[in-house]
Amino acid sequence: MAVSVRNDLKGSLKKYFGFESFKGIQEEIINNVLDGKDSFVIMPTGAGKSLCFQLPALMMGGTAIVISPLIALMKNQVDQIRAFGSNEATAHFLNSSLSKAEIQRVKEDIMKGKTKLLYVAPETLKKDETVEFLKQIKISFVAVDEAHCISEWGHDFRPEYRRIKQIVKEIKDVPMMALTATATPKVQADIQKNLQMLDAIVFKTSFNRSNLFYEVRQKGKKDKVLKEIVGYIKQRSKKSGIIYCLSRKKVEEIAEVLNLNGIKALPYHAGLDAKTRATHQDKFLMEDVHVIVATIAFGMGIDKPDVRFVIHYDVPKSLEGYYQETGRAGRDGLEGDCLLFYNPADIEKLEKFMKDKPVAEREIGEQLIFETQSYVESSGCRRKILLHYFGEEFDQKNCGKKCDNCRHPKEQQEVTKDLVLALNTIENLNGKFNLKHVVDVLTGTKSQPVMDYEHNNLDCFGAGKAKDVLFWKSVIRMGLLMSLITKDIENYGLLKVNDRGLAYLKKPTPLFIAIDTKFERVTEEDEDNAELENIYDEQLYTQLKDLRKTVAKQKGLPPYIIFQDPSLEDMATKYPISIAELSQVFGVTSSKAQKFGKPFVEMIEKYVKENEIDRPQDMVIRSAVNKSGKKVSIIQNIDKKINLEDISRSQGVTKEELINEIEGMVYSGTKLNIKYYLNSIMDEEIQQDIFEYFKGSESDSLDLAFKEFDGEFSKEELQLMRIQVISELAN
What we know:
Helix 33 packs parallel to helix 37 (715-730). This protein starts with a helix and ends with a helix. The chain is 50% helix and 11% strand. The protein is of the alpha/beta class. It folds into five domains: 2-204, P-loop containing nucleotide triphosphate hydrolases (Rossmann fold, 3-Layer(aba) Sandwich); 212-407, P-loop containing nucleotide triphosphate hydrolases (Rossmann fold, 3-Layer(aba) Sandwich); 413-513, Arc Repressor Mutant, subunit A (Orthogonal Bundle); 538-619, DNA polymerase, domain 1 (Orthogonal Bundle); 629-730, Orthogonal Bundle (Arc Repressor Mutant, subunit A), CATH 1.10.10. The strands form four sheets. A seven-stranded parallel beta sheet has the order 3-4-2-5-6-1-7, with helices on both faces. A six-stranded parallel beta sheet has the order 8-13-12-9-11-10, with helices on both faces. It contains 37 helices and 17 strands. The longest helix is centred in the middle third of the chain and has 19 residues, at 359-377.
């Protein structure tokens, strides 16, 4: 049967998928499956892995079982098969998203022999009822998609994947197929061992995605990064892209900022219910939205060929994860941009997450994080580093300036003698220590491990102290890339000089490298404690103050009611020339901008033109108003006219803290009516006197008001009246 089927392979390809010819090694793989042999397929995203099991399944008798990790992936691939014109029953999936009635219909189609492809989640596969059902049907073969999930060294390890072979053997010992887009030599060996596929034919193509451009940028303060991202996406108007973050909160926040800035975006993470996730995915596939902001769960197996950019807001946990996520760009072979924002503090966060993990898992995680750090900090060809990680040698000359380091190379320096010193130091340490330890010895750092092993007594201790840690890391990483040094990944990342390295020591050749990039470390404390620099245009600020005085006089209001000084400073920094842009200025709401803004934006526009100012367009970024749960609760309580004393008790704050919070909200543009409370503590006539004072005063100073009324009213009473004045007149 296999021979007759194989004779019409291209006819079947045309019949089922409409393609005239196979891509790369697809035909060889399919022939191997048709011959009933085990196959291990390692192909990059976009190279056509799915066809390698879909076509033989459609051609062979029985049903092929495809074990897949994600519900979204199954749905996408089943929809894809059905779209080629096959009967709906040709492809089905079994997972937790189906009702009992739907499961029964799927089983009936399979029993009638209508179904050629059945996608099953590993969690569903291990259920007794699934095993019993599958024993009753004819199975052509079993394909394990995203097979890297089997390995603890893979980026998306799933413990339930470890039992697949055991369960399959219990059902029927049929040919196996494993497929993955990311597998280091270590992960590959782990997969084959676990699936008992040591004799499988291995089909491996190059991991090089020549159409992708790799770039790493400094991840500074949050507002700066968000501005960069908005600007970056707007330069790629209406092109599809994915932004990856590690936390659900960040996903929601960035999606909201993008929408506020005219970019159609949706969030995708495990905190959303299955229906919402499916809807968001479909809207992205149908191009109702252009950007998906997601945790790493999004995109596995999603067939959207025209994703033009992938942005990593957070540093990924492993290079496998990074490679697979970036691989979702440019699957059609056209351009794809991969941008990663890096802050060394993010690496520290990842390492902290590892602290509570079991020892074995922690050691693996730390090694994977180390590899990622080496990639992002390197000044060498990113493509070469990435492919080296997957066991593939690559000549940097073939990069074609498709990474930031090759497009903008840093100045190089000769490090031949330094590499020789590093290799000799690793040799002196007998290949039993990791990079940090080797660097400590070279720089003469008396760390605890160095002192414990008495390596401070070695001749090489401190031999490289004239150079810093970054320099020595760069040299040793180059030694790894040149395959002069071997890293034992399974064993704490210990470094050893291999035969090639020993040959280099005997006959060194000149080596020039660019030292790795030093990235600025930005912490959350830096964000919280950052002070606004006095960078506003003083000449414009003076003109805006004069204009405010004129407008205030025309409207019969005090100047501070129109706009406060910090708002004028922000205008003189951002140069807003429209009401929409003005509403993004500090302390200016949309209503306030509409109410008072026209003469201000007209003046700024005229000033910008006359002085030929290059406006920082990307600085005018709309950001979501941060209304915390506490603020919302305060607003709701005031709307219900609850006494401030009761609100302060329920919020667990002092009355003074509550009033300051209310005042901050009012100054930021929130309209709050506390008249009901003022009526309970002072007469209407007194309120009117204080109201008229603040309305006619050029200053909102409480001290001046206290003196004006000779201490007749407390500062708290005056502050409450000032809040009411601001809320009524300004908001």
